[in-house]
């Protein structure tokens, strides 16, 4: 397929991916709410606060014996571990790294069973009180559906990767009710210093469709459902002094982000060393999370309700500090131990608390200051995500869509840029690569682009440096040249015109006793495969590979003007890379 039909066909697949991603987001949202109602509310008798825009689907009471809530994360970790390591081990952890790895290193292939396994395991992890989020799982679910569609239809690697990106966008855009942020996340999260621009339009389409699907579903349970997850008081920037305080928030977020990532991967690497069954590791992680929750129950679950309380300026300073420390530790033990859940939602909570902390301190140090603490909460969210996930544009847009605090756009931009730069290469997503040039998925494309920009003339060995033979030379003359030079073949020219080519294999087909009687013209191959000097190197390389030959004569108007080998092409490519500074 090509042309308009091909584009229309692929567009329909992107729309289908967005639709299925939206249904996957509905499944995950519903399962988490069901598990939360059963475990924390019924068994643990613990009711955590909700964000203004979070929709409650289930509300029931069962005649069950009460269980200490701090035991429940271990139970959820056990069930999650058994499900994941029995059916799809790649579904362990936060999921986003697995998707990034599939894009860069596995041709966009994700096993079809992964989305279902991920949804169920995540519901048990978060619903039982594990400190995790929905972003990684829903990204893996959406990407898994996109990859599955591509595999069923036997699409190309490139198309499969684009549907994978569309699936990420659909999942994120729907679950966070952030269609623009979801699309940007999908193309930005793959790299630390780059974006997958080719997939941006498809990500937009998939994200908005998934968003519409999920909001239509949630509308059935909340007929006045707000458009954003958080309700934000009236906030605005009043002067240059505000900008300085927001810049300080960016610095603080960078510092805490580095601590968070290093703590997370210290726990992750420690658990990898444990010589026990893998399914037991999330149980141990859940048990430690429960112990942390004895002192800080605010760390259980996703924690969006406490972000809402911070926005409403209803959290004491000691609670803010407790959530920052507790959430870092609880998330590390919940997810880095192998539990199924995302790290984006905890990042939102931690970042909001860092912002709330700076807001409280600003209020103490500058009692007459006019900026309300809510502004710092929103700015902290954006700055922290920018540093942790290396998605500066996404962090700005998504936080604005989730909170509705559009008046703070300059403040979030300032803090996010500062935190992104100061945090360096530290990222919660280890599978990210620096740029498209560093991605195995694009390495061949990069080579192709460079070779298409170079001509054979740029790389060939010129005719005056090429050893040729005459049609009248004897075969012994050719054998002597082969022995002397190490070359296995030579162009045959007559008055500068290429008339054939002779190789060692041509000669070895002739019996020894007849070789002295024959000349080059009797043995040479007259059907010569050649290229012109203006041919690009990409086509020349394809000819060499297709015909399984090592060299090509370069001919212009019948005359031999040079010869080109695979080695010549490699050297030209390396020179161009050096010139471009790649």
TrEMBL record:
Keywords per UniProt: CBS domain, Chloride, Chloride channel, Ion channel, Ion transport, Membrane, Transmembrane, Transmembrane helix, Transport
Residue stretches spanning the membrane: 9-32, 69-88, 162-187, 199-219, 240-267, 287-307, 319-337, 343-366, 375-398, 404-422
Major subcellular location class: membrane
Source domain of life: Archaea
Localization: Membrane
Alphabetized InterPro entries for the sequence: CBS_dom, CBS_dom_sf, Cl-channel_core, ClC, ClC-type_chloride_channel
SMART domains: CBS
Family matches, as PROSITE patterns: CBS (PS51371)
One GO MF term attached to the UniProt entry: chloride channel activity
Membrane association type: Multi-pass membrane protein
Domain CBS: start-end pairs: 460-517, 524-579
Keyword Ion transport appears in the UniProt entry: yes
Entry keyword annotation includes Nucleus: no
SUPFAM superfamilies: CBS-domain pair, Clc chloride channel
One GO cellular component term: chloride channel complex
UniProt-recorded name of the protein: Chloride channel protein EriC
